[in-house]
């Protein structure tokens, strides 16, 4: 080797050594962090520019503005208010208000946030586009939270694995389809992922250094966590496990207080200090909850006893108390605990009701997986979601991170280090200990997720993704090992991960990997918030406009899965007839299915929330349903053949006939969906709304016997 080359190599080595020791500030990593965080934020907010509100956003945003405008917390269940308040902050300077007549409606008295939300979104505004502005601003606020997650992932990974590890983790979180899908929607999912992460960091910080800052960081994080989602209680057992691991470790505990510094060497003294801080944290979280509700116990302002009440998702039986109704099917001890909290007013009334509502919801709800439905969920639901909605290159990164301890041990042996204490088991234990808050939380969260009956969306395991991305930073050891082959593998996997993310833009909610044939086949496997959450009305509008240019005058029929209903469809300028139409009071109109374009949301095609089947495991068209359908069909057909005049039809359309007619409409749609599920759609709008161009023969095949 020439003298010049040896000098260059030495200078590079000295430079890398200086950087690793923190001796100089290198500009390019700072630029890389800024660019990646900015890219994440831009991808998040631009990908929802042409997206309609998802099903739950109408409720979350309405809650936030209702708290601000009325001081009433009746619309809360099942979530605490932080995410709602945060999302509504930028719109409070606008001229937004509920119409006065709204407060005299049954929807307000019964705290029906869905009905109130429809009024707020689609009836209230003189300028209909103002709600689009409010939704956009709320989504930007959530995207800010998602960007903060990116920063925390970077700093945590850098602390564990160095600058290279931090940048690898940041790249993964910044381009993650899961983070981009839910880190831009006005829901609680991004918030709970953020505050679980900050709470874990704060707890681990305090367990290794007690100071004013570590105490305050933990207090703020935990208060925010418990004000975001009721699943926050999981942090309690996780924190206890981390405390036990810390005490087993036994290293001295540094304490900084008012300029003084000392170390606690006895375990029992360290435990006493931790317990004292935890008491303070519990108090501040409790105080934060009260502060969020204005330090007022009563949730409903100026309510009339027996008339104004909290919301129940399945109605309230006559003569039943709303609290007792939420205890149905639950352990009696749970009801006693809730009543004790109410009696002594331990928490605000709305917060206590949120807990009862969440427990009732967790009993189960209609879930769909691979052609089957169940109200108690599937044991394999979340593992399956993780397998098909995670880019395949990430599995390669996880595998690479998993072999790092073996790789490091081999490197030690090649270097001639035979000391097992430094190169083997002890080193692995040290790595495991440093990553304790990550893997303990990951395991605890997955254990709870596997046991839950609530399987309505992949988003519910979102808090585990930032943890995975941090742990993937361990691949920095392979990158820094000097092998070109290993570097090529890490670079290749990272590149493929980014390509997978960019390829699905802007439809991040519909991301599916090739294990199920990609997003266009996804509707056969998962629906609801894992795919079709009502977000693609603008995409449907664009498709129908193009079709109208090619074949003008085609009739369009629609079944849309969204909380906005018909008003949302009209809001986006879509001219379509609902496939399921309820009989009007004058009973006029043509209710038959006619040839045309049928646009059906994936969730509705799978009949996940249809009451035709009455629950059960499989939503399959059965002999009993066929018999019921045939019983109604001649009556309805005879009715349709009558002259379309109010006088003649209205005589027939009594309450009994109206109920039978509406039941037939549901049966007819269920039968149509049964037929269409066996057909290939003519087009799929953004992977979520299926388009079928049906002629009369196809309709006859689907609807007649």
Biggest beta sheet summary:
5 strands, mixed
Overall outline: globular
Q: Please give the order of strands in the largest beta sheet.
A: 6-5-7-9-8
Amino- and carboxy-terminal Cα gap = 87 Å
Question: What do the pLDDT scores average to?
Answer: 90
Total helical elements: 31
Rg, Cα atoms, Å:
29 Å
Descriptive account of the structure:
The chain has 705 residues and is mainly α. Helix content is 58%, strand content 5%. The longest helix is centred in the N-terminal third of the chain and has 45 residues, at 130-174. The relative contact order is 0.09.
Short summary:
The protein is mainly alpha-helical and 705 residues long. Helix content is 58%, strand content 5%. β3 and β4 form a beta hairpin.
Question: Could you name the key traits of this structure?
Answer:
five-stranded mixed beta sheet; two-stranded antiparallel ribbon; mainly alpha; 705 residues; 31 helices
Structural topology:
Layout: H1 3-20, H2 27-46, H3 57-70, H4 82-88, H5 106-109, H6 113-123, H7 130-174, H8 177-182, H9 189-208, H10 212-226, H11 235-249, E1 253-257, E2 260-264, H12 267-292, H13 322-326, H14 332-343, H15 349-361, E3 367-369, E4 372-374, H16 381-389, H17 392-402, H18 404-414, H19 420-423, H20 425-434, H21 436-451, H22 464-471, H23 476-479, H24 484-504, H25 537-550, E5 556-559, H26 565-571, E6 577-578, E7 596-601, H27 602-605, H28 623-641, H29 646-652, H30 655-676, E8 683-685, E9 689-694, H31 696-703
Parallel strand pairs: 5-6, 5-7
Antiparallel strand pairs: 1-2, 3-4, 7-9, 8-9
Helix pairs in contact: 2-7, 3-4, 3-6, 4-7, 7-9, 7-22, 9-10, 9-11, 10-12, 11-21, 14-15, 17-24, 21-22, 28-30, 30-31
């Amino acid at each position: 080797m020439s003298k010049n080359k040896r000098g260059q190599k030495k200078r590079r080595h000295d430079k890398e050594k200086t950087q690793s020791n923190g001796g100089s500030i290198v500009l390019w990593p700072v630029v890389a962090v800024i660019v990646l965080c900015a890219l994440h934020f831009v991808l998040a907010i631009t990908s929802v520019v042409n997206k309609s509100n998802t099903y739950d956003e109408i409720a979350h945003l309405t809650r936030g503005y209702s708290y601000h405008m009325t001081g009433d917390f009746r619309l809360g269940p099942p979530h605490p208010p932080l995410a709602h308040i945060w999302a509504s902050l930028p719109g409070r300077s606008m001229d937004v208000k509920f119409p006065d007549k709204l407060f005299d409606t049954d929807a307000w008295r019964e705290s029906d946030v869905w009905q109130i939300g429809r009024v707020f979104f689609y009836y209230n505004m003189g300028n209909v586009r103002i709600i689009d502005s409010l939704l956009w601003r709320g989504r930007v606020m959530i995207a800010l939270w998602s960007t903060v997650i990116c920063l925390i992932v970077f700093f945590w990974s850098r602390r564990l694995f160095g600058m290279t590890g931090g940048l690898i983790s940041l790249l993964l979180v910044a381009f993650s389809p899961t983070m981009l899908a839910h880190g831009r929607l006005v829901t609680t999912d991004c918030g709970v992922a953020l505050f679980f992460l900050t709470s874990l960091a704060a707890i681990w910080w305090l367990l290794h250094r007690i100071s004013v800052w570590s105490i305050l960081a933990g207090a703020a994080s935990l208060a925010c966590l418990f004000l975001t989602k009721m699943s926050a209680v999981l942090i309690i057992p996780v924190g206890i496990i981390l405390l036990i691991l810390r005490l087993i470790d036994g290293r001295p505990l540094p304490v900084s207080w008012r300029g003084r510094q000392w170390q606690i060497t006895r375990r029992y003294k360290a435990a006493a200090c931790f317990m004292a801080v935890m008491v303070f944290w519990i108090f501040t979280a409790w105080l934060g909850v009260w502060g969020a509700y204005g330090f007022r116990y009563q949730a409903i302002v100026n309510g009339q006893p027996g008339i104004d009440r909290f919301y129940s998702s399945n109605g309230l039986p006559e003569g039943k108390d709303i609290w007792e109704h939420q205890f149905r099917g639950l352990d009696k001890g749970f009801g006693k605990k809730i009543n004790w909290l109410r009696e002594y007013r331990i928490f605000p009334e709305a917060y206590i009701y949120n807990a009862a509502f969440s427990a009732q919801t967790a009993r189960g709800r209609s879930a769909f997986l691979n052609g089957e439905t169940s109200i108690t969920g599937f044991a394999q639901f979340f593992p399956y979601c993780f397998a098909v909605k995670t880019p395949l290159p990430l599995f390669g990164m996880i595998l690479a991170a998993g072999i790092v301890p073996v790789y490091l041990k081999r490197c030690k042996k090649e270097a001639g280090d035979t000391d097992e204490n430094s190169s083997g088991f002890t080193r692995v234990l040290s790595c495991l200990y440093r990553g304790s808050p990550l893997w303990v939380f990951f395991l605890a969260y997955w254990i709870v997720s596997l046991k839950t009956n609530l399987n309505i969306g992949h988003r519910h395991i979102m808090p585990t993704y930032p943890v995975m991305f941090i742990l993937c930073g361990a691949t920095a050891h392979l990158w820094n090992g000097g092998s070109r082959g290993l570097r090529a593998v890490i670079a290749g996997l990272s590149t493929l991960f980014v390509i997978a993310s960019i390829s699905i833009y802007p439809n991040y909610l519909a991301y599916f990997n090739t294990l199920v044939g990609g997003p266009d086949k996804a509707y056969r496997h998962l629906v609801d918030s894992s795919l079709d959450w009502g977000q693609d009305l603008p995409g449907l509008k664009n498709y129908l406009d193009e079709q109208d240019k090619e074949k003008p005058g085609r009739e369009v029929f629609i079944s849309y899965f969204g909380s906005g209903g018909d008003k949302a469809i009209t809001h986006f300028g879509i001219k379509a007839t609902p496939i399921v139409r309820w009989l009007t009071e004058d009973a006029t109109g043509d209710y038959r299915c006619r040839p045309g374009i049928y646009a059906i949301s994936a969730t509705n095609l799978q009949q996940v929330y249809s009451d035709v089947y009455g629950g059960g495991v499989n939503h399959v068209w059965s002999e009993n349903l066929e018999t019921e359908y045939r019983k109604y069909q001649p009556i309805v057909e005879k009715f349709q053949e009558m002259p379309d005049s109010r006088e003649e039809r209205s005589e027939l359309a009594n309450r009994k006939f109206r109920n039978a007619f509406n039941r037939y409409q549901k049966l007819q749609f269920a039968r149509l969906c049964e037929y269409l599920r066996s057909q290939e759609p003519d087009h799929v709008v953004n992977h979520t709304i299926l388009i079928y161009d049906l002629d009369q023969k196809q309709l006859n095949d689907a609807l007649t016997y």
